[in-house]
Amino acid sequence: MLRRGKSITGTIIGPNKTNVKTIKPSKTRKIIRRYHFLNQSKQKLLKLLKLEDSNNLLFDTLRSGNADFQRGCDMKRGDDVTERQLIKIHQHSMDSKLLYNMLGYVYTELADEKGLSNYQMASRMGQDVKRGGDSSKILIKWMKELDDTQEKNHDERKTMTALEIGSLSKQNKISTSGIFNPVVRIDLNNSNDQEGIIRQDFMERPIPHNDNDKFDLISCSLVLNFVPTPLERGQMCRRFKFFLKNNSNNTRYIFIVLPLPCLSNSRYITPERFHDMMLSLGYEKLRYQEAKKVCYALYQWDKNLENEETQKKRFMTKRQCRDGPKMNNFNILLSK
Ligand SMILES: C[S@@+](CC[C@H](N)C(=O)[O-])C[C@H]1O[C@@H](n2cnc3c(N)ncnc32)[C@H](O)[C@@H]1O
Hints:
Elements lengths: L24 H24 L9 H8 L1 H8 L5 H8 L8 H16 L1 H15 L8 H14 L10 E6 L7 H4 L3 E8 L10 E2 L17 E5 L8 H10 L13 E7 H5 L6 H10 L2 E8 L3 E8 L6 H8 L21
Parallel strand pairs: 1-2, 1-4, 2-3, 4-5
Antiparallel strand pairs: 5-7, 6-7
This protein binds S-adenosylmethionine.
S-adenosylmethionine binds next to helix 6 and strand 2.
């Protein structure tokens, strides 16, 4: 639900006594909610205006060539009328001037580097140990369990390599447990200039040709829900396999974390449907666990399990699996 009025840049977050920036939990949730609301609004507006922004060039194009969009860009943040209109975008679907206006308003707030950096800081605060965060704790627990079931003695346990997509910290268990080395960390925006996190879009990361440049594990924690459209989420899932090693170690793991409601309360996807979709891509479920707010899943890629027929039949078109008044529309769709 939208909390009206505030920009995602929020109030200035000043350094505390230890010179480490922090945000209160209530504010953290507000910033994250606002960011997701803006992203969803952007998608709705693009759809109604029949626009695509696959290269992220639309903002600059419209800013220099569309007066209605420009007006939206120049508006004051937290404009009451626009905020109300954004809640009911579909009521204005015939008014293209207003749609462009709203799009400019939304884009400007999303493009604000300070807003994204606050969003990332809010996400990092959610990972704070005191707030029950760091989803990679579960990953490490599972890795140890898997090692035990394979009854390897200490010498046989090889260090694995990992790619962490959407990395916000070098202090998470994935980086500190010693199980993974190196951990290559990437994020769309390294707003905090943390050394050791590469600024990179996973979808643009060049596909490696030899195993040395591939990984034993890909971690994708709370990233898929950040990807704006169902098709782009599907493309991301399909892309994982190109970064997994082909060697005989039998690793090839994918660790995915999603906000629980994405799977437990969506009209279009359920945990079972998500696992089936992953299986059709060749990712077999090894572990799945639901917590109060998020769900964790561990898959292993096996090329022999890929099934294009199932992909086509079940996962390339939108299908409603259930309905209810408070359900969301989160979905993941595959394309060829
Ligand atoms: C909610 S944060 C999650 C951070 C952390 N992994 C966690 O579990 O709390 C989502 C992050 O994913 C990043 N992200 C989204 N799409 C991405 C992509 N295509 N490539 C790299 N990073 C991406 C965003 O920049 C954002 O910092």
